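Recap from last week: sequence in, structure out.
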Amino acid sequence: MNLSLLTLEIVVATLALFIFILGLVAPANQKRGIGYFTVLSLVVSLIIAIILHGESGTAFGTMYVVDPFSSYFKIAFLIAAVLVTMFSISYVNKLGYNQGEFFALTVLALLGMMIMSSAADFITFYLGLEMMTIPFIILTAFRYGDKASSEAGMKYMLLSAMSSAVLLYGLSILYGAAGSTLYSDVINVITGDNIDALTVIGLVFLLAGFGFKISMVPFHMWSPDIYQGAPTPVTAFLAIGSKAAALAAMIRMFMIALPETREVWMTLVIVLCAMTIVLGNFVAIPQTNIKRMLAYSSIAHAGYLLMGLVAFTNLGISAILYYVMIYVFANAGAFACVNEFGNMTGSDEIKDYTGMWKRSPLIASVMLLCLLSLGGIPPLAGFVGKFYLFTAIIDQGYIWLAFLGIGMSMVSVYYYLIVVKVMFLGKPVEETSVPVSLGAKTVMFVSAVASLFLGLYPAPLTDIATKVAQLFFPM
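Predicted structure tokens:
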């Protein structure tokens, strides 16, 4: 086996273990530096991932695949991890305890995401899923004595266990039908011609399990409470990384192992996609807590991303890849703003953002850009991403779904503008300025620039996404 294919995973695993040890041995007055060390190490890992992007091969037989698709998602995960870790430094330093454990668990969750994106086997996929989920459970309940954080951790643990059981049941049925856990073997056995009722049940359970992980309606119930109760940096990484990892694993499994059964699961995916977009956007409107609003926004975006799978074309998959990357930047910027305001005021209520443009013009401006990008307003990157997704499904004849997505995008703009209205038109209750840490300023700047640049000049990322998608649709 060529171990060089696992270079990135080995580096990230070693980093997680080293941060754990560093947290134990570092003097109390020097533990503030663990966050900066983590950021620097993740940046180095990101550079390694970019250098290794062109490599392809398999490890552990054919259970683990390194290809442009997995490399693309690993780069997205690493960018998300770098951005989230940068603005989480001020949050963790304010907590004042277990800095090493916080950053080590974040890196372990990242490793789980990377394994999920490369898994070409049911068992490997599940190991990656649990390696991502268990650190997130601990991180969600990280705040000592905080009832909301403890409640969020308990809910996430119970619902994750339930969703994993559902997912495992579906995988076990498919294993029983195919006689193998390898995707390459499953496609040769389970086809549309010989599918039976039990296999259909397995596919339904599989979709339900993935539905929990990507917050797809009606399996979304965990998201709002957990997003609200968890520490804000953890909420950000959950919204960005775990959703993208589950989506990557879902695409690989359904495109490589189960494409012959498309007629069975496609109708269900279309219905769930439409339900997810509608419920996510409409329920976000009355929310008064900004983290709950972003949770329902995240649910709606899961529906938009599913459109690419519904299209089942090169354009559809490349649109997902493009959208995932712009979603990373827009969400990271928005959550960085929420984190800094929450650090100073202890509040996540939208009404408390009144007059933000006077208290912190930077937070108000970046929040405006990121929310408008999520809403799909030109010339920001979110508009281009949604345009690609809508074009992909229109090409396949799903015009009604495209119009539904466009209509719901206008709804999303409405509740995003509620926040903008509060920030720019309201009079601040107090004139105290909101301090922004250096790490958060960097994240805000990068997110704002990326959202603008990828909207005005999408060609480079589009070309990369199109080439990666050709893995599933060779010319």
